[in-house]
Amino acid sequence: MTSSPGEPDRTSRRDTVASGARVTGRGLRSVARGTGRLGRGAFRTARRAAAAEGADTSGLARLIELGALNAAADAAVAISLAGTLFFQIPTGEARGQVSLFLGLTMLPFAIVAPLIGPLLDRFSHGRRWAIGATMAVRAFLVWVLASSVTSSSVWLFPAALGVLIASKAYNVTRAAAVPRLLPRDLSLVTANARTSMAGMVGVAVSAPIAAAASAIGPEWSLRYAFVVFVVATVLAIRLPARVDSSQGEDAIGFLSGSAADETTSPGTTAGAPRRRSTVRIPPSMAFALRANCGPRWLSGFLTLFMAFLLRVHPIAGHSPKFLLAAIIGAAGVGNVLGLGLGSVLKNVHPKITLVLTLLADAAAVTFAALFYGLLPLVVLGFTAGLTQCLAKLSLDSTIQRDVPERVQTSAFARSDTTLQLAWVIGGFVGIALPLQPRLGLIVAAVVLVAWSLFVLANAARRTPTPARPARAAA
User: Fold this and answer.
1) pTM of the model as a whole
2) How far apart are CA 389 and CA 291, in angstroms?
3) All domains in the chain, ordered by first residue
């Protein structure tokens, strides 16, 4: 039986295709194995770093891992909502609803959040459950969001902002837990830097997974976030019992003022196990907290102002999603660099770092307003991420150095609450302004310059002047 003249060519083509498929399969398997080895190597490296210097035995490593899970789930929520909250709902309607609900979030921040620190100090066995509650609440809300994003439900915005509130509440409760899990040879600033770095690792690992799930549908990345939040809830409840320990602490209340440390004990008797104390905020902490409000306000402003601005007025030649990704990516790079510089600049006085962060933010916003374009916006995003990280590390260092150890928990709770309020106010201003690039950035520059002058003038006024020598008696 003879074959047709074209049969050898078809056979050759089939062999070529089969050979190419085998090569492609081997290549994909090699890439998968390489990616898996890289991921496992990065995971092992991150775990070793989290457990270094006694953090594994003290329980701090578990809290750092919890921070990574928290950041991973928050990243999945952000990726899912980026394609729904800002890009599918009409701009005017979205701005109105976000403005309303963002304004409502200021009430729980102003009233409830300042009570978290004293409440956890008063009741034992509450911190693990409080941290777990912030995870469980977000697990429930993202499940609601998974149904809302596909049906345009009225619960979309309340659930999204509920996730935001619970995320900020987690930061406050975590700040109350970190000092209790510190190893003897590890500083609080280093512990906070490791937690932030673990969060970035969590985002780096989780973002591709969430993006792949979101490509199928935004509800799938939210369901992925639900699973991560459930795991984080279990991990939070299984934190070491030292998190709930209040041994050697007083019931503390903070007052604003210039006195470094003033305590009162009304109604107590000798030998009482606990006493009520009132501690005035040291001037150095007051200055650091005010200085941090500038970078945090700018972060909230840029997050919402740019999200709506670039959707309506994208820069020519670039899509809104690309522009947002470029700015957010630059901010992430600045944040990572800030963590690295934090360990290098640990011998620099925190006050100098705080002044430089205020001036750098004002200069970057002014530059972006005068030369509006892709490069100035990337520079602004990078500067905002860098300064926010350095300012927060300086605040942590100031609290550790100048606030009595027995009240550092309440100090961190108060500072985190104030910074969350600054972020919310910045976001509210960002969505209230007209969507005009230079107008919005000029307003931000004016606010930052005015705030910087206020902070510096207030610090100069509170700086004690040396006493003049008394005149000799005649």
Assistant:
1) 0.68
2) 12
3) 56-245 (1.20.1250.20), 281-462 (1.20.1250.20)
